[in-house]
């Protein structure tokens, strides 16, 4: 348990992918339910599902370029269409479409080739199955058999990300049986079950390893479960207002927003799972590609700290700024630094100046910016366990959004 939680937290930053039949309509992943579209009509989308541009290897290469350590792909979403071979459970899957192949097999092999950890999203509600409403026990049997296929046929999986129990909050989902089956075949897999927008950060069944924050930043370290188990946290965020591609949704987040979201997660040792919705053919969109590449440049500056830095007792006076500890040294994440320049050129007029730290134990050897190794003036009161360092402005031509200073201890 402790080992898989620690390894998950070190992954720090992952890619979420919502891809399925709904991608052909370009109106979001809930389009069947929201429009609504009768299932008999909707399922015809399978007849033109080619996934011609979908490549697990290429997606994994991009994730690595973007600084991500894991990818969670929708093996089946709420519409009931599976990207994997359901092996006789039904024919509503990718191998029985014009794609003619098991996309999950392609995804997993691509991830392994690029050193990326594969995670599987799987819905627990299903609009394609009448028994979800009429015979819930029969539906749970179908769900268990579906997930067992994923457990047994794709090698070791980093984790399973479930979503949908919130649709029947008073039902008996027989989670002991469900998670017990997963532990039988994938004992080291992380298990997540999304609590949804209205229950962020809530714990659930004892086998669940991660509390979720859907489109909301975690504001504190996750509490241990009642039995004392350590538990991790993850914020899932999408690039605009939909998870599946929505061609007329222009409300995209910026690289600045994403850097700040990632920092807010790492402040409390939570992961960020950032979603993209590929095109009908399975290609990641141009804006997402450009924005994530920019964020990847920032991640590359601080990759070791984002992975291994831990929240600690050292504090700043700012609500946004924070400190992580890695080995004996401290790393201070600084927001909103101004750019040096003429007042007619530089828009940011804030003055950061001296940054005060409390709880500093031991003697400071030096303080430097990580990005350019520039030394920073500092002063320390060892008796009071306080220190200050001069947060110098960005040189003209630079704005990292969040800049990290290393406080090296003697």
Helical content (DSSP H or I, runs of 4+): 25-40%
Oligomer: single chain
Write down the domain tally.
2
| CATH 2nd-level architecture of the largest domain | Alpha-Beta Barrel
Regarding CATH, which class of the largest domain?
Answer: Alpha Beta
- Give the CA-CA distance, first to last residue: 35 Å
Could you report the average pLDDT, rounded to the nearest whole number? 95
Biggest sheet strand order reads 5-4-3-2-1-8-7-6
General form: elongated
Beta content comes to 15-25%
Radius of gyration: 23 Å
What is the assigned CATH homologous superfamily of the largest domain?
Glycosidases
Per DSSP E runs of 2 or more residues, the count of β-strands stands at 17
Structural class: alpha/beta
Number of distinct helices: 11
Low-confidence sequence ranges: none
Q: N-to-C SSE series?
A: HEHHHEHEHHEHEEEHEHHEEEEEEEEE
For the largest beta-sheet, the strand count, sense and barrel status come to: 8 strands, parallel
CATH topology of the largest domain: TIM Barrel
Characterization of this structure:
The chain is an alpha/beta fold and 410 residues long. The protein folds into two domains: 2-308, Alpha-Beta Barrel (TIM Barrel), CATH 3.20.20.80; 312-409, Immunoglobulin-like. 26% of the residues lie in helices and 23% in strands. The chain contains eleven helices and 17 strands. It has helices at residues 2-11, 31-34, 39-42, 56-65, 103-114, 131-134, 136-153, 175-185, 255-267, 286-301, 303-308; strands spanning 13-17, 70-76, 117-123, 159-163, 190-194, 210-214, 232-238, 271-276, 310-311, 315-316, 322-326, 329-335, 353-358, 364-369, 378-381, 386-391, 402-409. It has an eight-stranded parallel sheet with strand order 5-4-3-2-1-8-7-6. A five-stranded antiparallel sheet has the order 9-11-12-17-14. α7 runs parallel beside α8 and α9 (255-267) crosses α10 (286-301). The longest helix is centred in the middle third of the chain and has 18 residues, at 136-153. It is elongated, with a radius of gyration of 23 Å. The model has no long low-confidence stretch (mean pLDDT 95).
